[in-house]
Amino acid sequence: MTDFQKRVYAALRAVPRGAVVTYAGLARMVACGSCRAVGQALRMNPHAPRVPCHRVIASDLSIGGYQGAKDGARVRKKLALLAAEGVHFAHGRLLDPRRVLVVPTR
DNA sequence: AGACCCGGACGCG
DNA sequence: CGCGTCCGGGTCT
């Protein structure tokens, strides 16, 4: 468990149910210049439900990846979890951009 | 040191 | 709008 991951998970815990954040947003929260690094940190997903890594989507409102996959059953599961929270997707895109937690640029 | 990784910005068609 | 391309930071080998 690296310090970087701790920061990412901590930031992610601040995301309320029914809302989502972008990788870029999380990257800003943890003061990381690379959103990709964030995704890589989430990839392992240590403590499953506590840290809702499924509330993290891409900046273009696409679903992004899940457990190392950009599509397939994993991603469908992610969509299902989000749907259960009231966050719905269509055509691989988030329907309500308002549900995205906006992170102010530092 | 090199390769890999759940993205992002930018340019082009 | 949908590619294709380069870029970046962090971690693993």
Features:
Arc Repressor Mutant, subunit A; mainly alpha; 106 residues
Can you walk through the features of this model?
The protein is built from 4 helices and 4 strands, in the order H-E-H-H-E-H-E-E. It has a two-stranded parallel ribbon with strand order 1-2. It has 106 residues and is mostly helical. Helix 2 packs across helix 3. It has helices spanning 3-13, 23-29, 35-44, 73-84, and strands at residues 21-22, 56-57, 89-90, 93-94. It is globular and about 35 Å long. The mean pLDDT is 93. The longest helix is centred in the C-terminal third of the chain and has 12 residues, at 73-84. A hairpin with a 2-residue loop joins strand 3 and strand 4 (93-94). It has a single domain (3-89), classed as Arc Repressor Mutant, subunit A, CATH 1.10.10.10. The protein binds a DNA duplex (13 and 13 nucleotides) through helix 2, helix 3 and helix 4.
State the name of the first-level CATH class. Mainly Alpha
CATH architecture: Orthogonal Bundle
Tally the beta strands.
Answer: 4
Low-confidence stretches: none
- Strand content range: 5-15%
The rounded Rg comes to 12 Å
N→C terminal distance? 26 Å
Order of helices and strands: HEHHEHEE
CATH homologous superfamily title: Winged helix-like DNA-binding domain superfamily/Winged helix DNA-binding domain
Q: Please identify the structural class as seen in this structure.
A: mainly alpha
What is the mean pLDDT?
Answer: 93
Count of separate DSSP helical elements: 4
Output the strand order for the largest sheet: 1-2
According to CATH, the fold-level topology is Arc Repressor Mutant, subunit A
